Amino acid sequence: MPTLLHVDTSVFPGEASASRSVTATFRKEWEAQHPNGTVIYRDLAAEPLPHLDGLAAAAGFAAPDQRSPEQEAAFALRETLAGELEQADVVLIGAPMYNFTIPSTLKAWLDHVIIMGRTAGAEQTTTSGTPAIVVASRGGGYGPGTPRESFEFVTNYLGKALGDGLGLDVTFVVPELTLARSNPAMADLVELSDASKAKAHEDATTHAKALAARFAA
């Protein structure tokens, strides 16, 4: 049975988080199609990872039989996280925009799983071609042609890190204007916000069904 790696990063719980709400929609549909499948779940807000340190970074460039005991111990977490990514048939990531970019917890995860010569840095990595659905929610509007287009460092960064770096086949689901109902200054954007939210949930369901069907074949 297929394996789904589900990573959430929002600091807000449940329905209070646009990204968690949409990743939950994807996962619900995925599990309906694969009730006996494996789901590896990481909530990086509830259980944040330590930042990559020098020992763990250096260990990633050393052959396993050349690592010191200290490097081997430091590399253990990277081995676990990279193994989860390599095991996954589909990757699902909630990536809300915080201060124009990704949560620091997600950056920490990336720093651990990007291992040159293994998951990255090779023409054919151990994660090449794995489908990844990224729910990139944001409180405002940052799409092409908007005043804050140049402030968008979520999809452009993750497209490179996940796609070009890890070789994943990345698809973005983008619920925008999520603060419209709570910010009086955005009152005239509520209708657009609701439409964006509905489309994000619809897209999540559609992608989950399509990927579930692919791995059921």
Automatic annotation (TrEMBL):
<dbReference type="InterPro" id="IPR003680">
    <property type="entry name" value="Flavodoxin_fold"/>
</dbReference>
<comment type="subunit">
    <text>Homodimer.</text>
</comment>
<dbReference type="GO" id="GO:0010181">
    <property type="term" value="F:FMN binding"/>
</dbReference>
<keyword id="KW-0285">Flavoprotein</keyword>
<keyword id="KW-0520">NAD</keyword>
<dbReference type="GO" id="GO:0009055">
    <property type="term" value="F:electron transfer activity"/>
</dbReference>
<dbReference type="InterPro" id="IPR029039">
    <property type="entry name" value="Flavoprotein-like_sf"/>
</dbReference>
<dbReference type="GO" id="GO:0016655">
    <property type="term" value="F:oxidoreductase activity, acting on NAD(P)H, quinone or similar compound as acceptor"/>
</dbReference>
<feature type="binding site">
    <location>
        <position position="10"/>
    </location>
    <ligand>
        <name>FMN</name>
    </ligand>
</feature>
<feature type="binding site">
    <location>
        <begin position="17"/>
        <end position="19"/>
    </location>
    <ligand>
        <name>FMN</name>
    </ligand>
</feature>
<protein>
    <recommendedName>
        <fullName>FMN dependent NADH:quinone oxidoreductase</fullName>
        <ecNumber>1.6.5.-</ecNumber>
        <ecNumber>1.7.1.17</ecNumber>
    </recommendedName>
</protein>
<feature type="binding site">
    <location>
        <begin position="97"/>
        <end position="100"/>
    </location>
    <ligand>
        <name>FMN</name>
    </ligand>
</feature>
<feature type="binding site">
    <location>
        <begin position="137"/>
        <end position="140"/>
    </location>
    <ligand>
        <name>FMN</name>
    </ligand>
</feature>
<comment type="function">
    <text>Quinone reductase that provides resistance to thiol-specific stress caused by electrophilic quinones.</text>
</comment>
<dbReference type="InterPro" id="IPR023048">
    <property type="entry name" value="NADH:quinone_OxRdtase_FMN_depd"/>
</dbReference>
<dbReference type="GO" id="GO:0016652">
    <property type="term" value="F:oxidoreductase activity, acting on NAD(P)H as acceptor"/>
</dbReference>
<feature type="domain" description="Flavodoxin-like fold">
    <location>
        <begin position="4"/>
        <end position="163"/>
    </location>
</feature>
<dbReference type="Pfam" id="PF02525">
    <property type="entry name" value="Flavodoxin_2"/>
</dbReference>
<comment type="similarity">
    <text>Belongs to the azoreductase type 1 family.</text>
</comment>
<comment type="function">
    <text>Also exhibits azoreductase activity. Catalyzes the reductive cleavage of the azo bond in aromatic azo compounds to the corresponding amines.</text>
</comment>
<keyword id="KW-0288">FMN</keyword>
<dbReference type="InterPro" id="IPR050104">
    <property type="entry name" value="FMN-dep_NADH:Q_OxRdtase_AzoR1"/>
</dbReference>
<keyword id="KW-0560">Oxidoreductase</keyword>
